[in-house]
Amino acid sequence: MAVDPALTASYETCRRLNARHGRTYYLATLLLPPHKRPAVHALYALARYADEIVDDDRPGDRAAEFDAWSRGLLAELRAGSSTDPIGRAVVDTLRLWDIPLRLIEDFLLSMRMDLTRTRYPTYTDLERYMWGSAAVIGLQMLPLLEPLVPTDEAAPHAVALGQAFQLTNFLRDVGDDLRRGRVYLPEEDLAAHGVTISSLEAGVVDGPFRRLMAFQIDRTRALYRRAEPGISLLHPTSRDCVGTALRLYKRILVEIERADFDVFTGRAQVSRSHRLAVAGPGLARAMLARGRLKPARLG
């Protein structure tokens, strides 16, 4: 089959975005067989580009810009062709891996909410947002991870992992989100722990805030526990990628605790040495699995 230089360049653009902005995610992706990595890069780049429009603080009508971009993207995905560097790779990824377009539509709907909604009264309200911002990301990834069981059996684990990643980001980025005028901690939880929006804006790290964060971390760890059994349901060549991503993201919660829950003056990060210590053995196992096992699908 002839190589399309434009498509190759599009996937490379997506790969560079992933490498630059999603270090943990990118590292985990290296544990996948090479033929699967471009699809992950394309899906990441799409999510990153949408985030950049939503979070852009330049003067202008971001809602109008986002609406125009998302309408154009969906039209191209439905048509099956795109001239945009990222769009071209996403079109190809959806076609190769039979990823339903509705998962992209649901993602875009949640991203659009970030332009109009800054508070979530209850955790149920936040879950509705996370369906499009996180759960469907897990479902987008599921076809290329090749579950060995029916999709309906693997999907709940993928949803839980997407939500766990999202909540981890919310807890790490409380300060950054506040600077954008957003609070993803449910208002019912703030009230239950005696924390106010004013104290969040002032960056107060006191007993009530620490208890609030500990509660949120427990909730997030429960989602990781719900997601973890799903790893064994995946094709062996996919397990180390997902397992590594889970362990590294879960480590961010430990780093938040080590910082005594201060998420205002610094950003909890997993050290480079720890990332390599976790990913190194996984890479060796992944290479062994690829050598012994033929992928269920060559994409």
Summarize this structure as a short list of keywords or feature phrases.
14 helices, single chain, Farnesyl Diphosphate Synthase, 299 residues, mainly alpha
Written account of the structure:
There is one protein chain. This protein has 299 residues and is mostly helical. The protein has a single domain (5-292), classed as Orthogonal Bundle (Farnesyl Diphosphate Synthase). The chain contains 14 helices and no strands. The protein has helices at 5-21, 23-29, 37-55, 62-79, 85-97, 101-113, 123-145, 151-172, 174-179, 187-192, 197-201, 207-227, 236-258, 272-292. The radius of gyration is 19 Å and the shape is globular. The model is unreliable at 293-299 (pLDDT under 50).
Short description:
This protein is mainly alpha-helical and 299 residues long.
Topology, please?
Layout: H1 5-21, H2 23-29, H3 37-55, H4 62-79, H5 85-97, H6 101-113, H7 123-145, H8 151-172, H9 174-179, H10 187-192, H11 197-201, H12 207-227, H13 236-258, H14 272-292
Helix pairs in contact: 1-2, 1-3, 1-5, 2-13, 3-5, 3-6, 4-6, 6-7, 7-8, 8-12, 8-13, 12-13, 13-14
